[in-house]
TrEMBL record:
The keyword Transmembrane helix applies. One of its GO terms (cellular component) is plasma membrane. It is a multi-pass membrane protein. Belongs to the 4-toluene sulfonate uptake permease (TSUP) (TC 2.A.102) family. Pfam families: TauE (PF01925). This is Probable membrane transporter protein. It comes from Cellulosimicrobium arenosum.
Length: 302
């Protein structure tokens, strides 16, 4: 019962972050499942099954608040679904002892990207209103979908920063469109895992716990997307992902670090993480608000 309650809370927290930042539900949830010893393919399958419900609820909530660009949803979501199905099949056929560290490396890379992106760059703006082309959205969706299924998360960390960096769509619609299109990715990944694994290693109670937490958080996150500082949230989430997956790798057969080395390494990462959050808070406070400055004039402080 304690595990189910913990998973529900993780699902709630992860969806709050995902719905307001456009990323991190899958990465955060999968990281926890790996930390408690879940088979990598089963962990990703569990998260994607839960995401079918959470992304549907999140997409509906974002649509209600006007945060969705449906052209973007279709142009990135369909290739994303194809990439996710291929990625799920690939992960399901990896040996478990190889898949665990491989997934942790992928998650660590995504965590470092999220942490550095939001700490030092923040949310770029500019070039709003220019069209996003299919030749950009198609390959982006394909790669993001594959990474999402093989890493247990990655649709948001790959797709959201890429769309934000284009400067052609306002941040709230980037987040809403990425969250909504993830529904297609979650369905395709789940089908890929089901065809390859069946129900092996998947605990439906865990799926339900993650789903319940996510359903509670989805409408709240869609409303909060206009109010929470994404830069600070991104630094906080990136640090959690980095810290947890470094711990997993240090304890794996690949490294098998001593307790002393683990303690020193994790302590150093925790200090850097705290510094990153402090930097983001300082940078956020120095950033002009839209009310004071037009979007074209807003720049991200160094």
């Amino acid at each position: 019962m304690r595990t189910l309650i913990l998973l529900a809370l993780v699902g709630l927290g992860a969806q709050l972050v995902d719905g307001s930042l456009g990323m991190a539900y899958g990465v955060t949830s999968t990281t926890l499942l790996l930390a408690i010893g879940t088979n990598p393919a089963a962990a990703s399958a569990t998260v994607h099954l839960a995401e079918i419900g959470t992304t549907l609820a999140s997409g509906a909530a974002h649509w209600k608040f006007g945060n969705v660009d449906w052209k973007v949803v279709l142009r990135i979501g369909v290739p994303g679904a194809i990439g996710a199905f291929v990625g799920a099949t690939f992960l399901s056929n990896l040996a478990a002892d190889l898949a665990a560290p491989v997934m942790s490396v992928l998650l660590l890379g995504l965590g470092i990207y999220v942490l550095s992106r939001f700490t030092f760059v923040g949310l770029p703006t500019g070039r709003l209103g220019l069209p996003l082309r299919k030749r950009f959205l198609g390959p982006l969706g394909l790669v993001a979908g594959f990474v999402d299924a093989t890493g247990g998360g990655g649709w948001g960390p790959v797709g959201t920063p890429a769309l934000l960096a284009s400067g052609r769509i306002e941040p709230r619609k980037v987040i809403g469109s990425i969250d909504t299109s993830e529904f297609l990715v979650a369905i395709a990944a789940s089908l890929g895992f089901m065809f390859s694994l069946g129900s092996q290693g998947i605990d439906l109670r865990w799926v339900l716990a993650l789903l319940v937490g996510g359903l509670v958080a989805a409408p709240i996150a869609a409303w909060l997307v206009r109010h929470l500082p994404p830069r600070i949230l991104g630094s906080a989430v990136g640090g959690v992902i980095v810290l947890t997956n470094v711990r997993t790798l240090l304890r794996s057969d690949w490294i098998d670090a001593s307790t002393t080395v683990q303690g020193v390494a994790l302590g150093a990462i925790a200090i850097l993480w705290a510094a990153a959050i402090a930097w983001s808070v300082r940078a956020h406070r120095r950033t002009p608000t839209p009310a004071a400055t037009s979007p074209a004039e807003i720049t991200t402080p160094a």
